[in-house]
Amino acid sequence: MWSQKTYHLNTPPFGEGFFIAICWSSWYDGVGDFMKEIFPRYYPKFKCIAGECRHSCCIGWEIDIDADTYELYQSLNSPMGEKIRTHIEGEPPHFVLGEGKRCPFLDEDGLCEIIREHGDGALCDICYLHPRFSNEYDTFTETGLGLCCEEASRIILSEEAPFFIRHPLWMSRKERRFFKVQKAVLKVLQDRKLTFQKRMGVLTEKYRITLSTEEALVAEFLALERLDEAWTEALACQGGVKKELLLEQFGAYLIFRHWAEAWTDEDYAKVVRMVLKSCRLLGRIATDETFLDMARMYSSEVEYSTENLAKLME
After folding, report:
1. What is the largest CA-CA distance in the chain?
2. What pLDDT, in 10s, does the model give residues 89-105?
3. Residue 56 pLDDT > 80, yes or no?
4. How far apart are CA 121 and CA 129, in angstroms?
5. Can you tell me the mean pLDDT for 252-259?
6. Rounded CA gap, 2 and 128, in Å?
7. 303 and 213 in one domain?
8. Cis bond leading into 92, ω under 30°?
9. Are the C-beta atoms of 157 and 292 separated by less than 8 Å?
């Protein structure tokens, strides 16, 4: 019934400034005829750092081109339009990556040639939206930032305040129950009177979850599909996170992003199980200093694979 899907954030008919005003009113006001999309409190802090990014999303990702943008590229009467067309192939159409799996339009300074020549309105949906994700419900849409982006990871995991998003006052009955359960889980995860280990214990008892040993947990992640050898090496690390706020923000992010995949009590338990496994893993392999980068790799390797997510929820 509900799904996590791409939601286009292009400039609305009222103009960009009006869109931003709606964003801000979304979590502070919580009401209004215009509020169809809501955001976490940290959302407006995000801005792509482009050439300063150490792990560019323009390297290693095969990018499919949506139909509207494909038509635009076919119509561009410019040298850049010709270059774009020569680097598209396949069905669905996608960009052919160059040496080192680099996007053919990523210049030496880490900037996008398409944006430079035609503006960000000429980007395909995936490039325009990344690292955003959306959860679409009956009466509204949640939009957040994904940890696979290093700047998003820095913003989300460096927050001192507990995760917060204000939901609309008007919701269907099933939505109210759905978010009541989510709120209860977040309340436990963010209960700073308890150690994070005890918070996990409360949730394992409530949802009757048995977590495997840390060694078995690492083996479970090694059995998943892996894309980057750096992640394989990371799974072999022996760390130990001391700053529990990192684990709290990581766990709250996962609950926010993946709660849309739950529906029944059994589904709730599956999502909570996945979150606790993931928190326990990062608590083992990361340190306070490496946590942000470990979370970024986790997101790239796990969250963007439906197969990997499904296996972790088993």
Report:
1. 63
2. 999 999 999 998 999 99
3. yes
4. 11
5. 97
6. 23
7. yes
8. yes
9. yes
Which pLDDT does position 15 carry in this prediction?
31
SS3 145: strand
159 with 147: CB under 8 angstroms? no
Q: Is residue 40 part of a domain?
A: no
> Same domain for 122 and 226?
no
Contact 112/58 with Cβ under 8 angstroms? yes
141-145 and 37-38: which strand pairing?
A: parallel
Q: What's the predicted TM-score (pTM) here?
A: 0.84
Q: Is the dihedral of CA 110, 114, 116, 119 positive or negative?
A: negative
Which of 108, 129, 150 is the C-terminal boundary of a domain?
129
pLDDT over 90, % of the chain: 72
Residue 144, judged by CB atoms within 10 A of its CB (0-12, 13-18, 19+), counts as buried
Question: Are residue 124 and residue 66 in the same domain, yes or no?
Answer: yes
- CA–CA dist 9, 118 (Å, integer): 18
| Judgement on whether residues 182 and 270 belong to the same structural domain of the protein | yes
From CA 255, how far away is CA 251, in angstroms rounded?
Answer: 6
Which of 203, 144, 136 lies closest to 175, judged by CA?
Answer: 136
Query: Any idea what the Cα angle at residue 255 is, between residues 237 and 238, rounded to 5°?
Result: 10
Determine the pLDDT at residue 62: 83
Rounded Cα distance between 87 and 105, Å, is 9
**Final residue of a structural domain among 70, 96, 129:** 129
Give whole-number Cα distances, 141 to 1, 80, 175, 290, in Å.
13, 35, 12, 32
Structural domain contains residue 136: no
Query: Which residue in this structure is represented by tokens 């269907």?
Result: 172
Distance CA 110, CA 145 (A): 21
Do residues 80 and 187 share a domain?
A: no
CA pair distance 254, 271, nearest whole angstrom: 9
* Highest-pLDDT range among 104-113, 132-141, 247-256: 247-256
Rg of the chain in Å (alpha carbons): 20
* Range(s) of the domain holding residue 203: 171-312
